[in-house]
């Protein structure tokens, strides 16, 4: 049967309800601001979730007082014992995440909910800095009994959790030497395939756009791209770009690249937002896609099929990614401590209209 979906506010209401059942807040709930920070959602979402709980008779709110749980008869109390939970750690709130991430998080919440588990989403750049150990120690100390899911994580964060012995896995790729399990798209195979797709169409000057922050998947992408190119005898070394986040940085890098002579003719973009920036900038300069420049998007987002020409891209359904993560979470919980295993998902290659043969010099 197809999975059922819940709004973010309904999912937040479920989390608060379980915290109440577990006795986390016996007399009064934290204020909206504190709940917003703890659950990494907006105060508007918190207000909607609290309204749902009031309508169910779970909490009551009096003027100028914090919301308080309504005491239930003993027959409705939750059985004692540890509550199994998963916690997703992100640098930014989920509401600012890319559509693909929001979709797989929603799928994962549903799968865990059906299995009697809950997913908490926690965000903050303080956990992703070079000196985040103190913040991480406080976080895991106040949220025991979680299986930690690390998304968009860098080496220091992965190394900290690997050393901690806590149940944890990476939603992405682990860095070399880090003994944590991970679930990710097979970026090495994907980017090797993309390089070969360009080369077979006669392109010899290629560019790979990555993000400035080096994630494990980006390192695998670069290696796969290089491995594909060297299979052709007359191949030129690719140009690897890592502009800072934001359209302005990407445009500055594009100006520099397009000023080269001869200019590159094939671009592999590591995310769909970079793809949008590159496509629109090329159009503003009178360059046609794919007649003058060919483009491939490494990642898929729901809006890409609505662009013209339809992007050539790689697509892995969010539900497939979420299911792989769910299976990995169960495996990590059974193990009890981090043991390295890798799960790789090979996306589908969708041949759009943005790659054409290159016959020039």
From TrEMBL:
Sorted UniProt keywords: DNA-binding, Transcription, Transcription regulation
UniProt KW rRNA-binding keyword: no
Matching InterPro entries: LacI/GalR-like_sensor (IPR046335), Peripla_BP_I (IPR028082), Tscrpt_reg_HTH_GntR (IPR000524), WH-like_DNA-bd_sf (IPR036388), WH_DNA-bd_sf (IPR036390)
Molecular functions per Gene Ontology: DNA-binding transcription factor activity; transcription cis-regulatory region binding
Pfam family, one: Peripla_BP_3
HTH gntR-type domain segment(s): 2-73
Matches recorded under PROSITE patterns: HTH_GNTR (PS50949)
SUPFAM superfamilies: Periplasmic binding protein-like I (SSF53822), Winged helix' DNA-binding domain (SSF46785)
PANTHER family per record: HTH-TYPE TRANSCRIPTIONAL REGULATOR GALS, LACI-RELATED TRANSCRIPTIONAL REPRESSOR
Designated name of the protein: HTH gntR-type domain-containing protein
């Amino acid at each position: 049967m197809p999975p059922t979906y819940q709004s973010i506010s309904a999912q937040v209401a479920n989390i608060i309800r379980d915290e109440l059942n577990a006795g986390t807040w016996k007399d009064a709930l934290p204020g909206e601001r504190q709940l917003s920070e703890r659950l990494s959602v907006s105060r508007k979402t918190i207000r909607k979730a609290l309204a749902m709980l009031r309508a169910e008779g779970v909490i009551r709110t009096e003027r100028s007082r914090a919301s308080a749980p309504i005491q239930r008869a003993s027959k409705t109390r939750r059985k004692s014992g540890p509550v199994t939970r998963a916690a997703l750690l992100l640098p930014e709130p989920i509401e600012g995440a890319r559509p693909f991430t929001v979709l797989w998080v929603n799928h994962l919440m549903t799968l865990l909910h059906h299995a009697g588990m809950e997913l908490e989403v926690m965000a903050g750049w303080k956990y992703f800095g070079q000196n985040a150990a103190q913040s991480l120690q406080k976080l895991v100390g106040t949220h025991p009994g979680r299986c930690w899911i690390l998304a968009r994580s860098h080496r220091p964060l992965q190394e900290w959790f690997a050393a901690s012995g806590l149940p944890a896995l990476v939603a992405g790729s682990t860095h070399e030497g880090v003994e944590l399990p991970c679930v990710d798209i097979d970026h090495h195979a994907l980017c090797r395939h993309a390089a070969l797709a360009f080369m077979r169409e006669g392109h010899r000057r290629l560019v790979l756009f990555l993000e400035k922050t080096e994630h494990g998947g980006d390192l695998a992408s670069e290696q796969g791209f290089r491995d594909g190119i060297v299979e052709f005898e007359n191949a030129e070394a690719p140009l690897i770009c890592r502009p800072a986040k934001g359209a302005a940085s990407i445009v500055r890098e594009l100006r520099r690249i397009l000023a080269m002579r001869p200019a590159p003719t094939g671009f592999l973009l590591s995310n769909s937002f970079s793809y949008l920036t590159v496509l629109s900038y090329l159009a503003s300069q009178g360059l046609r896609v794919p007649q003058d420049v060919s483009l491939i998007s490494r990642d898929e987002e729901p809006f890409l099929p609505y662009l013209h020409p339809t992007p050539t891209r790689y697509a892995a359904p969010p539900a497939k990614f979420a299911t792989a993560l769910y299976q990995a979470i169960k495996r990590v919980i059974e193990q009890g401590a981090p043991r390295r295993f890798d799960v790789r998902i090979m996306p589908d290659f969708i041949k759009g209209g943005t790659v054409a043969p290159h016959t020039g010099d």
